[in-house]
């Protein structure tokens, strides 16, 4: 009888210790936004707070933290890979820590819809804690033009067909412009790049040059225009700002067929690529920024730019 009593008492003490540890280690998960385009990075932040009365060590096991994404109907989204290892770290008493992961390469999230994500964390002493689920949406956005298909030469010499697609989406009542680069069927997003705020009353200008680079000029606000140039692998070659009247325009700027911005005034900015120059000269793309290309693009005649209203 006494042995049975001691066994029950030991079990109750173990359960109490487990509940105490869970209660004294806070874990939660947050996302930077509630809506994302397919292929756009979804950054999840997992925050830890230690109130156990002493230091704890996390991340000692390879699979100590896992994410689960479900549709709102309860179906689990296919996991493509485990999260990258964070390594072990110590969290002192009464301190907080935060780790970030990009969920996009970890799950098959190409389909638009409503989802929810939660994290499962293995605490010391083999205890498991699951965060509350956080809802988010995958949205397609509005395509602004007929997708432009180009051929991209890969490092192994093969040629891959890809499409440039300009899309706009309304996030938190702010209209945002994106360039999406997909495969030829548009079923797989290879790159998606935010171009910044845009407006409804002035459609972006775009053109594909003879090197199959994508040029886009769009109004970000009253009197301010952003100019970007991309290669077919998503590499950003040029980012510049323009102002003024007459309205800046994308045009062929020389006999070699190079495309650049005419009219308007160049406004140097710290975000410029290449570095801002103190000149209002016509801009034309001459070479990649930052070294060798990840892939080469095939030569073809200049495309015609999209019509302006």
Tags for this entry?
mainly beta; 2 domains; 309 residues; disordered N terminus; five-stranded mixed sheet; Immunoglobulin-like; six-stranded antiparallel sheet
How is this structure best described in words?
The chain has 309 residues and is mainly β. It folds into two domains: 24-138, Immunoglobulin-like (Sandwich); 142-297, no CATH class. The chain has one helix spanning 2-24; strands at residues 25-31, 35-36, 43-50, 56-58, 65-71, 89-91, 96-102, 113-123, 127-130, 134-138, 142-143, 148-153, 159-171, 174-183, 189-197, 205-208, 214-221, 224-230, 236-243, 249-252, 259-262, 265-266, 283-284, 296-297. Strand 18 and strand 19 (236-243) form a beta hairpin. The longest helix is centred in the N-terminal third of the chain and has 23 residues, at 2-24. The termini are far apart. The model is unreliable at 1-22, 278-282 and 286-309 (pLDDT under 50).
